[in-house]
Amino acid sequence: MTQPDGFKVAGKENWVCKLTKSLYGLKQSPRQWYKRFDQFMKGQRYTRSKFDHCVYFQKLQEGTFIYLLLYVDDMLIASKSKVEIERLKTQLNLEFEMKDLGKPKKILGMEIWKDRAHDRVSLSQKQYLKKVLHQFGMNEHTKPVSTPLASHFKLSAQLSPSTNTEREYILQVPYSNAVGSLMYAMVCTRPDISQAVSIVSRYMHTPGKGHWQAVKWILRYIKKTVDVGLLFKQDNTLGKGVIGYVDSDYAGDLDKRRSTTGYVFTLAGGPISWKSTLQFTVALSTTEAEYMAITEAVKEAIWLQGMVKTLGLVQEHINVYCDSQNAIHLSKNQVYHARTKHIDVRFHFVREIIDEGKICL
Q1: For the chain, which residues score pLDDT lower than 50?
Q2: Which of 127, 88, 91 is nearest to 106 (CA)?
Q3: Distance between CA 256 and CA 281 in Å, rounded?
Q4: For residue 297, with 0-12 CB atoms within 10 Å meaning exposed, 13-18 middle and 19 or more buried, which class applies?
Q5: pLDDT (0 to 100) of residue 335
Q6: pLDDT 10s digits, 141-184
Q7: How far apart are the first and last CA of the chain?
Q8: Main-chain dihedrals φ then ψ at residue 282, nearest 5 degrees
Q9: CA contacts within 13 A on the Cβ side of 293
Q10: Which residues contact 245 (CB under 8 A, 6 or more apart)?
């Protein structure tokens, strides 16, 4: 690195310093920090999850677990044993310079609310979303709407700027910033806007006035539903484990006529994983579109099955629900069909997974 001010060697001002260890801000620093933290946690006899390397756990004598969730240098500790939590915090404080913020109320912009009387936990981003609305001019005079994206929006590349006047207009619009802000909320606590954000994010390179109107519509929907979040409760739904739901549209993309895959997985009555994404290839029928969507959902289900097992919830198979009987029959039938011979092999792996009993469709 360059010599810092006040420590430059006379006559050698153009020389640089050779580092003996990583400093904050370097490209490799986050990786070095993680390797250091990982070494420490393993030294404390914690196991790193194979399905998420930022989740550490240890099985206690009474059969319960203690978990540590790491995100860069922020972390959450969870366990039924307060003694074990305090022990781990003491070990961390002895090894690293850390600050204990007490019971979790907020992390990464997500607000945590607990209702112990009714065994409920919720996650929301009310404060974050209020800042987003203020940033993009959604004030008290803005009219809220009840749907993430109205049916009259027919977005396509044809709405991209075609004249200099339109290009100058869109240069003044914070399109990418708005979509990025909405995308963070979508990833964390707002699965209800996944499909809408997925659509507007397709035009980040050349957005037009019509695309910007769609983004503002989503913001108006957020204004009406700013208090909405995720709710998890300990009731009879918890015993059912992870449950998946998958669907697709058909040729919904007006530019390349590709279909959209959408799925959501729930646990304890609330969504834990969701996605809305454009399929890689053009489907020739609704059955093909649903079949490809099932494949993506099953891939996520396999990962979730391993993840919840890490957390102590053993589930023999995950139920995935689909509203297409043709796609379900195609997934369960190993017989060769001339009508499906063109479908990529990568989508047929779902048949093997279902045959092994890991997923129940």
Answers
A1: none
A2: 127
A3: 9
A4: buried
A5: 58
A6: 899 999 999 999 999 999 999 999 999 999 999 999 999 999 99
A7: 57
A8: -80, 125
A9: 36
A10: 263, 264, 265, 266, 320, 321, 322
